[in-house]
Design goal:
heterodimer; A: 446 residues; alpha+beta; five-stranded mixed β-sheet; five-stranded antiparallel β-sheet; B: mainly alpha; Cytochrome Bc1 Complex, Chain D, domain 2; two-stranded antiparallel ribbon; 7 helices; disordered N terminus
Chain lengths: 446, 214
Amino acid sequence: MSDKTQVSTAAAPRRKNTRLPAEIDAQLLSQERRAFLRKGAAMAGSAFAAGTVGASGAGAAPLAVPDSNKSMGKPIPATEYGMPSKFEKHVVRRRTDVLVNRQNWSDWSMTPLQYQPGIITPNGLIYERHHAGTPDIDPDKHHLAIHGMVRQPLLFSMADLVRYPSVSRFHFMECSGNGLTDWLKPASKTVQQTHGLLSGVLWTGVPLSTLLEEAGVDPAGKWAIFEGADGSGHTRSIPIEKCLDDTLIVYASNGERLRPENGYPVRAFMPGWEGNVCVKWLRRIKITDQPAHFRSETARYTDPMPEGKWRQFSMVMECKSVVTNPSGGMQMKGPGFYEVTGFAWSGAGKIRAVDVSFDGGANWREATVEGPVMDKSLTRFKIGWNWNGQPATLMSRAVDSSGYVQPSVADIRKVRAIVGFVQHHNAMQPWSVNAKGEVTNVIGQV
Amino acid sequence: MLSVKSKLLLGAAAVALAIAGCASTGGGGTSATGIPLGATGPHEVQPLSDKPRFGQAVSEADLAAWNIDIRTPDGKGLPAGRGTVADGQKLYQSRCVACHGEAAKGGSMYGSMVGGIGSFKTNARVVTPGSMYPYAPILFDYIRRTMPMDAPQTLSVNEVYALSAYILNLNGLIPANAVMDQNTLARVQMPNRDGFITDTRPDVKATRCMSNCK
């Protein structure tokens, strides 16, 4: 799409195509947009007005001065952890209602991507996947051990770990099972359910290479076993190359210490790899000469392949994208302009381009990829769309810096024998818009 | 004889070569053991004249209570002890049946842990420890670290061997009079031993068609 389209329509569409309550919508407005809106009815009568029907009613009647202008607000408390507006209570993690577990310790909750306007997932909304619930660990009593095939086994306290030279990096984290309920036919309603095992996070911690250098890895050490301090003692075997490359020992996310459900006080993070390897509540790293072949890397987190086989140690999360606005469960506000937005990401590098189709994949337009575009990070894309009120099918397709093009379900089916539930499902996600403006999931139907 | 430092440098060089020398998913190559690594980095260069060293030396002996992982293909790390199918059945009835059901056929919380052998070439793969685990010591490793779910890492070594024996017996993989210990458990032949293949992604090729694509 052209820049002209972007600029000329930047002010109004958010009020039309999202279901955000008016108050937070107002908070999102830039200074320019506030000024723009104050110009009122004259501007509202321009080309995009048709799409704003019912969005605010601004200009339809004389405006009363709101109560908030005529009263004192809440005073600043002496201390406080700020929370979202009471009008944002719908923006929460949710367990899926499609695949319902009979217990909620080995379970997961999903990020509300449809309400995430930027590439950062707030800490309270980062998706969860635990295997024995969330432990409550005292950081003063927690230790990380590095041992096995090393010159000197070492023990680190949390106070030790935070003294090391640190790095902060933006990376996505995605569960290998993201999309597992929606493969050949739609089961989920919302993008939270289809894609919400995905979060974008600023991770802060110590490069594992720093700690491994101190311990002195035996050249014969080819793997590292990571183990958690939770009730599942979760474990994975990781090739030493990844440990020495970009693996982080993380103690903070988005500018504060990790939340308990995301590994407090310390976890592993392997950029671009499936979330399951990023062991939370990390207590031990053992250097070995071969993988342990744990249950978590044989009976689980392996991919069904033809001839009854299972693909093992498939850690890289391949290039993927999804339109989040509009997305399943939303209601269009009538014909007119919409800014279609979504996220793209790749474990193989940066997002190079995102294309969007409005006719179920027959024809495509290149969307604007919004910076910053970072390695193995959520990347936002956007494209203007004048909906004519006729049925349409929206889908996005990302291309990454390795040249890999996001496939369709049909493309993946040609090479993988997916039965039961799907792993590493990075196919395009179509959303259908009917003439009534209802948006529904049509995975596998186009 | 190389010094420890030389060995470490050689090791680092080998890793650098491994990362630079191959090309597959994202250009990151594969590990020395054939695992696709994806793209490398990003990295920051942070010159430090004095590298901080805050790790506290610890002995392997002091880590013994934490050092519970089993190298499951050959059972390295399995502790001394033993357990029978009969003992496992008794323990199962008191500690496991509430969630996993009678004879491990599925209960109030979890599905069956029995059967599925031979199902992987059908369109209804049934994943159980019997059908899926390539190596029997996975049972020991997993039961010890996770079960029972309300009190993990509290079973004795003998109890873990006994439960392993019971589950293997229910799957028809060992006789009712079998005794599992650090030698016999690793020798149990699991039907899915050769069921795993390495990651060869990117395996799906799509093209960036822009118009009249369907």
